[in-house]
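Exercise 3.2. Students should predict the tertiary structure of the chain below and write it as structure tokens, then compare their answer with the key that follows.

Predict this chain's 3D structure.
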Amino acid sequence: MKNIKRTPFILFLLILLIPLSSASAHRPIWGDHYGPIEIPDLRTSFAVYRNLDSGQIDVYTFESEAGQDLHAGIQIPAVDGLQEYGVTAALFGPGLPEADSNTLPPDRPEDLGVLVFPSSVSADFFEPFTQTTYWGRQQIDLVLPADGAYYLLVWHPDGKPGKYVLDTGRAEVFEPADLFRFPVWWLRVHIFFGHGLALALTGVLIALAVLLVVIRKRTKKTSPAKE
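Answer key:
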């Protein structure tokens, strides 16, 4: 297993100064709720962070026009115990072919064609902004055949719980205000990876170090000068 790269607090502060256009990154969507998750724009690069419970089926929705490109990928966070983890994805929508219903979950859209994407292995991915590593799984690149609503379902075929990240789109779109949102994004991603305790301890150690420096400076100022 590859070592997961963790960012020291000082490096984290330096990352905030990196121009947003200088590295590849996705706008995060926090999938903390149950029910359909809307992908607002197929062109913009988004990443949805999901905990998959036992037997859970995630549903993503989006509207498309005929001829629009769809790019989507599934990554597994590089966390102990998920090295072999993978999920199945199925795209339902107008103009898609029929599929064997035995490979599909019972709770699914009706009267729509479907393409099924079983778990497969692709290149690992290192996300530079959050300094996190992902094991690559299936990649979806196709031209959507018709206008209308599409549904992307993600589930584990045996109902096993785990974690995954769904990324969509290619255009990296950021706003100046995102520089102020980034610390929250960074923290939430590392909590998703299970690094919450390590981050808290790091913050405490940094705070203690700063406090000690301040105390030493004040002590020197208040100490009587030696004759």
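Discussion points: Residues 1-24 have pLDDT under 50 and may be disordered. The two ends are 62 Å apart (CA to CA).
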